[in-house]
Specification:
Layout (H helix, E strand, L loop, with lengths): L7 H7 L4 H22 L10 E5 L4 E4 L7 E2 L9 H24 L20 H18 L4 H10 L3 H9 L8 E3 L8 E5 L6 E6 L6 E3 L1 H12 L2 H6 L1 H18 L10 H10 L1 H10 L1
Antiparallel strand pairs: 1-2, 3-5, 4-7, 5-6
Amino acid sequence: KTSYESDPIASAIMAPYDIFNREMFIYDEVLPKLTELLREINDSDELFSTAIHVDYKRQLLIFEDLVEKGFIMANRLHGLDMPHTKLILQKLAKMHATSAVLNERQNGHLEKYDRGFFNRYTDNYSTYFVGSLLSCAEFILKNMPDLALYGDKLKRLAPHYMEIGKRCFTPTPGQVNVLAHGDVWINNVMFKYDPQTGEPVDVRIIDFQYSFWGSPTLDLHHLFNTSLQEPLRLYKQDILFQYYHGIFSDVLRRLSYSSLPVPSLNHFRQQVEQKRFFGNFFNINI
């Protein structure tokens, strides 16, 4: 995996996000330590692909070939059902919890990752983000007269959209923040399937270009509103938030996390609602 240096337009857009240096460092320095933390509690689960070589000078990453281990992409057009989604949530919860513990043990070392999709350094994506919002609003106003109220509300949101996104991505004091994946959806995971039943039995999370320090709920809003089959997205999110919370809180306790109280399910659901903007952001884009 290499940078976009040969494409000046893409390079100019991506530069303020510093995605390549960040991803190289995360694969080289962070993810192996998260795996070590899991081993402390006798959890042998594998969460990520392995980076065989990291070349900072050439902005180059060489990975193990997950296909050789039987991992493939899921069907993006079909979407994720409950077994697929729960597998991802198991891995995300463990990744998030171990990153909170690592940050605690390294005196805030991971908090420097503050360049998610919305951040205070750049508005380079605003053309796409705000453009999608306005396109959605115009479509509603032109084609759904009974929903014109909502089209108008979306249109009036445009001047404030980027600022609301930045506030959403700002870590909330008093809450357990984590190193979030930042772009967790069906194209950034690979599954292994049981050859007899065809059921998913394992998953690996890939592509850490947009990882950032912030609320774990942002990864969940991202996943649920880009990748789930529609019945799950509409009716099963409560179950999925609860499933994630159980694993997340268990790993934090087993690793003796102490910087902040481990959130109760009720407090975690409040955090989910505080960050609900990001779910709506993806609904508009999709």
